[in-house]
Structure formats: structure tokens, C-alpha cells
Specification:
Blueprint (H helix, E strand, L loop, with lengths): L2 E6 L5 H14 L4 E5 L4 H7 L5 H10 L1 E4 L13 H8 L4 E7 L12 E7 L9 E3 L7 E3 L5 H17 L4 E6 L7 H12 L7 E6 H10 L6 E4 L1 H14 L9 E3 L4 E3 L18 H13 L3 H17 L22 H12 L26
Parallel strand pairs: 1-2, 1-3, 3-12, 5-10, 8-9, 8-10
Antiparallel strand pairs: 4-5, 4-11, 6-7, 11-12
Helix pairs in contact: 1-9, 1-11, 5-6, 7-8, 9-10, 10-11
Length: 369
């Protein structure tokens, strides 16, 4: 019997990138027993609801899931399946590694950081209303609790310790948001001394955005609240090469769901054009969660070599306008087959070549916040 994993293909490009990820997962030799659970458009057609209870039950039972993206229908009364899944399963930590792969598609080839985002409260609590009948004023409530702040800060420090990282940076706006911001800041400051081997520092969100687009290599683990984390994780996906190569994971105390940062990209659905790498790297994260580190290393290496070689890559890594080294674009399934083929061939005994580093820009101290 292999690992029993809930497989949620999702919709749009979801089924295509999930098929690609499955092919690569199975090429590692690790045995999986997939428990397929439909959510999104397929589930609406079959059951009238985008997130049937059976999907939640399957994740609760198997405690681990690989998920494709799911469209949030505009109008029609359905709330986001993705937000509902996080809240109903209490998947409170959204973890998005941002690693440059072979220096491709990025101006920052040394980027290697992780954004840890609190995923259940903050400005995404869903508590909002119009203030008046004419809808000329509105309020969204930013809920920050000490419990959720403590557990996300602890999660970030534990992740940094486990992955032998050096620094955890808390991002907030405590100078302006004197209660919610300060509560998160206090939780971080009181957690930091329990991890004396790790550096702990803080940035205001606006300054953090500026710092990241100048010198992302100075950051390691970033921990922040829901909205700031949503924005920073897309920013960091861009630093590392774009949505096509950005994986993600959602963790609760006992459950883990792995899903790419990107959405369902409806304009590419059914065309076999989407980049499968983000979903394939979700399998890498899933294997690390299972303790299958060699298989995980093989996947990262196979992806790295496929992208570095640039013979079989999808449009976003191939075409002019997306890359400085244009080549003919391959399909999603062809790229997945190439990565799967390499998984058993890669040599893990040699270190990855260092990416090309651009000359450091001169920093104007007057602009440093
Ligand atoms: P998107 O990520 O689907 O697309 C943004 C851009 O990136 C588009 O140009 C798209 O074509 C491109 N892109 C995305 N993934 C790609 C890939 N693997 N390969 C190549 N190009 C890729 O974001 P969007 O258009 O804002 O959202 C589309 C739908 O997805 C919406 O309904 C949104 O709610 C949903 N969504 C779901 C999730 C999730 O399931 N976790 C996350 C984000 C968005």
C-alpha cells in the first residue's frame, strides 16, 4: 500500500497540471494511493456545490492532499472554495517558498526565501458590511487574535529551525495599526527569544516591498498576517520566476494541502499549454512533508535541469517577452514527461551550479527605510 493522498484536480488548467504532477510523483518510485475528490466546476455539475462535504472528509481522513487550482465564480452566490477549504480545515499556515530556478525568468537569481502567511483571519475574516443604505461607505473588520498570531509565529520559527534557515522577519504595520499590528508584533517579539539560534527582525509592509524588489537575497523566512502575506507571496513568486513555477502549501496542526500559487488560468484551460512546474513542485513539498527527502530532491533537481537545459519548456519559460533566451515552446504534458524522465536519471551527488549573479547595484543610503 502506498501513501493515501486526497487528489483534488480542480478546474480550468487544474486537471492538466495535476495529471503532470501525478506523472512526476509516480516517476519517483514512491507509491501513492490517490483518493480523487472533485471540487470546483466538476463538483457544481455533479452535486450543485463547489465544495462537497466529501472533499473535506477525504482530506480529514487522509490528512494530506494535492490540489489543483479552483475558479471562484464571479457572482452566483458561491464564496471562494479556496478560502472555505482553509477556514473549514483550519489550515492556518500558508507557506510559499520562493526559489529562483536555474536563474531563469528572474532578475534575482539568488532569491531563496519562504513567505509564511497567517491564512484564517485578518482582513480575510469575511466580516464586512455596508455602513449606509446608499452604499457610500463600507467596513471590513481586521480580526487579529493572540492565539492565531502566536501559532503562526511559532510555525515560522519552527520551519526556520527545521530547514536550517538563519533569519525570520515579521512584517506588519504596527506604527499605523496600533492594536491589530501591535498585537501581531508583540506575539512575534515574545516568540523570538525561544529560538536563540535564529535572527529575528521586523519590517513595515511598505518598506518590505521596497526591500524585496531591491535585495531579496537578504531575506530568509518572512512571517506576516493574511492580506500582507497574500500580496507578498505573489510579489515573491514574481521575484523567483513567475506564477508558473511557484508552489505552495497549507498546513494545520494535523492536515496539509499542497497547491500552486497560481489560479485556474481559464484562458489556457484544455489547451495543454500551462506550465506544470508549480504543481510538480507541490509534489516536492508533499514528499518532504512525508519525509521522502530523496524523492523530493530528485524532483527539484529534474525541474532545475529541465529549465536550465531549455529544450522542453512551456511558453512562459520559452517565448520572447517572457524570457531573455527564447526557444520554441513545448506543451504542458511534454514538459511533464521530460521532468518525469529525468527524475530517475539526475545525479544528486553533485551540487547544483550557482546561478549567474548580476553586478550588485549601488545602494543609496538615503533611500533605505
Ligand atoms: P491565474 O493565476 O489563474 O492567472 C494569472 C495569469 O498567469 C494569467 O495570465 C494566466 O494565464 C497565467 N498563469 C497562471 N498559471 C499559469 C501556469 N501554470 N502556466 C502558465 N501561465 C499561467 O489568476 P487569475 O486569472 O486572477 O484567476 C483565475 C481564477 O483562478 C479565478 O477564478 C481565481 O479566483 C482563481 N484562483 C484560484 C486559486 C486557487 O485555487 N488557490 C488561486 C488564485 C486564483
Amino acid at each position: 500500500m502506498g501513501y493515501r493522498v486526497t487528489l483534488i484536480p480542480g478546474d480550468g488548467i487544474g486537471p492538466e497540471v495535476i495529471a503532470a504532477a501525478r506523472l512526476v510523483a509516480e516517476a519517483t518510485g514512491v507509491s501513492f494511493d490517490w483518493d480523487i475528490a472533485d471540487a470546483g466546476e466538476a463538483a457544481i455539475r455533479a452535486t450543485g456545490t463547489p465544495l462537497p462535504e466529501a472533499v473535506l472528509d477525504s482530506v480529514r481522513k487522509n490528512r494530506i492532499a494535492l490540489k489543483g487550482p479552483i475558479t471562484t465564480p464571479i457572482g452566483g452566490g458561491f464564496r471562494s472554495v479556496n478560502v472555505a477549504l482553509r477556514q473549514q480545515l483550519d489550515l492556518y499556515a500558508s507557506v510559499r517558498p520562493s526559489r529562483s530556478i536555474a536563474g531563469e525568468g528572474t532578475r534575482f537569481p539568488e532569491t531563496d526565501l519562504v513567505v509564511v502567511r497567517e491564512a484564517t483571519e485578518g482582513l480575510y475574516s469575511g466580516v464586512e458590511h455596508w455602513v449606509d443604505h446608499d452604499h457610500t461607505a463600507a467596513e471590513t473588520v481586521n480580526i487579529i487574535t493572540r492565539k492565531a498570531s502566536d501559532r503562526i509565529c511559532r510555525f515560522a520559527f519552527e520551519l526556520a529551525r527545521r530547514d536550517h534557515r538563519k533569519k525570520v522577519t515579521a512584517v506588519h504595520k504596527a506604527n499605523i495599526m496600533k492594536t491589530t499590528g501591535a498585537l501581531f508584533q508583540t506575539a512575534f517579539r515574545e516568540m523570538a527569544p525561544r529560538y536563540p539560534e535564529l535572527q529575528a527582525d521586523e519590517r513595515l509592509i511598505d518598506n518590505m516591498c521596497m526591500q524585496l524588489v531591491k535585495r531579496p537575497e537578504e531575506y530568509d523566512v518572512i512571517v506576516t498576517t493574511n492580506l500582507f502575506g497574500d500580496i507578498l507571496s505573489d510579489l515573491c513568486a514574481g521575484l523567483a520566476g513567475g506564477l508558473g513555477v511557484a508552489p505552495g502549501a497549507l498546513y494545520g496542526d494535523t492536515l496539509a494541502v499542497f497547491e500552486p500559487v497560481h489560479g485556474s488560468a481559464p484562458k489556457y484551460a484544455g489547451q495543454d499549454r500551462a506550465d506544470p512546474v508549480a504543481e510538480i513542485l507541490c509534489v516536492e513539498l508533499l514528499l518532504r512533508h512525508l519525509g521522502e527527502n530523496e524523492a523530493a530532491d530528485r524532483i527539484f533537481r529534474a525541474v532545475w535541469e529541465t529549465i536550465a537545459e531549455k529544450k522542453v519548456v512551456t511558453y512562459d519559460l520559452a517565448l520572447p517577452g517572457y524570457t531573455s533566451r527564447p526557444v520554441p515552446a513545448s506543451s504542458c504534458s511534454a514538459m511533464a514527461r521530460e521532468i518525469a524522465r529525468k527524475v530517475s536519471l539526475v545525479d544528486l551527488s553533485t551540487p547544483l551550479p550557482r546561478p549567474v549573479v548580476h553586478a550588485a547595484a549601488t545602494i543609496d543610503p538615503a533611500l533605505e527605510g
